[in-house]
Design a protein that fits this description.
Blueprint lengths: L6 E4 L28 H10 L3 E7 L10 H17 L6 E5 L15 H10 L7 E4 L2 H9 L3 E5 L6 H5 L7 E3 L2 H11 L2
Parallel strand pairs: 1-2, 1-4, 2-3, 4-5, 5-6
Helix pairs in contact: 1-6
């Protein structure tokens, strides 16, 4: 575990992999999953720097019965294997699979997934960073007291990011650029 006892929390779609198309809405299998260029290199850098990396992602496709929990589990296993094969590591993956209508406290922007990780790994959220591609990712991080990084490789463009009521601490082109900033500013 890292000396600081902080973690790097990453959203999945739009941060690690290309987001699904508007028509598809959910990535349901490994065939549809494509890493964003530079992501595997960035995850390797985080692992080499001994940073704890945890994925936190809303995946309501399961709750909406668009995909099964097993499909999500299989996809996650393939993602983790690909990351490890290239020298990176995902220490944990947390999903909220409930639809928005369920009012679940683990669904972003609520902080339930971060709190679950904090309990399991003894993480200091004030020393952690949330990297996301949507205002809900950034709001979740801010509500938990984390530093935040908005990447422009997913849902949000520069104009939207600059007009957020509570903007991220840093705006990055993608995860690779975000990791460079993290490693330079958050030892």
């Amino acid at each position: 575990m890292p000396k600081s006892n902080g973690a790097i929390f990453l959203d999945r779609d739009g941060v690690i992999n290309h987001p699904p198309s508007e028509e598809r809405r959910y990535i349901r299998n490994w065939k549809e999953f494509r890493f964003i260029p530079g992501t595997l290199r960035a995850l390797k850098k985080l692992h080499q720097a001994k940073k704890q990396v945890i994925v936190v992602s809303n995946q309501a496709g399961v709750g909406k019965k668009i995909m099964t929990q097993q499909q999500l589990n299989d996809l996650t296993l393939q993602m983790r294997k690909a990351v490890e094969k290239t020298g990176g590591k995902l220490h944990a993956v947390y999903y909220c699979t409930h639809p928005p209508s369920a009012g679940c406290r683990c669904r972003k922007p609520y902080t339930g997934m971060l709190k679950k990780a904090r309990r399991k790994f003894g993480i200091d959220l004030a020393r952690s960073i949330v990297v996301g591609d949507s205002p809900t990712d950034i709001l979740m991080g801010q509500l938990a007291g984390c530093a935040t990084v908005m990447v422009l490789s997913g849902k949000t463009n520069r104009r939207v990011a600059s007009h957020m009521a509570h903007p991220a601490h840093y705006l990055a082109k993608n995860l690779d650029q975000a990791v460079q900033w993290i490693l330079e500013n958050h030892r």
